[in-house]
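Dear support,

I submitted the protein below through the web form. The confirmation email said the job was done, but the results page showed an empty box. After a refresh the structure appeared. I'm attaching both so you can tell me whether what I see now is the final result or a partial one.
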Amino acid sequence: MTELNASNGSRVRILSGGKYGFDIPVAIAVDAAHIWVTNSPPFSGASVTELSAINGSFVRTLSGHPYAFDSLDGIADDDGTSIWVTNSGLSDSGSVTEIAASDGSWVRTPTGRGYAFNDPEAIAVDGAHIWVANSGGNSVTELDASNGSWVRTLSGSKYAFNHPDGIAVDGAHVWVANSAGNSVTELNASNGSLIRTLSGGSYGFDRPHAIAVDGTHVWVTNTPDTQTGGSVTVMNSSDGSWARTLSASSYHFADPDAIAVDGNRIWVANYGSSSVTELTVG
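What the results page shows now:
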């Protein structure tokens, strides 16, 4: 894992080696004290690596019983209280694991028919609720952040979910990237109701995969069936209107697979070129 300086993008350090336990790291979350990385090897042995956010030092690796990790995908932080991890569960419908951020201990694993998980790919937290995008089920499951209980499952043609692979929340709204539908669904965070579905040529969506919100704009990565291109669509969070599309030729995108906001900067991970593109919010 590479750590960069948020102020100027310079390299701070590269974290690697056996002590970190990295094994196909696929997602990352950060709270004030720790960095959490999901490791998802193809057959078995999924784990979460916990690092110090201060200096990148290794804290612990979480694996085995009772975590029961299974094909980890998404990870999200709940204001430094809990860490939530999605288990896509190739052997069944999937689940979500809650971890205590204070010591990495297992809290609970919400699973079962009532949650309607189906290949949970991405997860987002707004403080009160947990939002899980089910890529295989074309649905979104909402949980109560205080106890992990089921609140509702959003599905059906009106939502236009089509392999939802990315999800983000900005307090008032939930934004879902539909990779197979070339669209973004906007939901009301207070009750899960549909606000609008954003699609069409002006947005330039091409297998939208990851999504992030900075308060003013929504940033969506487009990952076409090639590792040499891609783009980022920028929308206005106030009304979902298109703001601009950032192209691969100008920004050196190559299959942009993940995106994150850090204050006034946007960080885009390019799977196709093993690089990171830094953007300025605006």
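Response: this is the final, complete result; the empty box was a page-load delay. Helices lie at 248-251.
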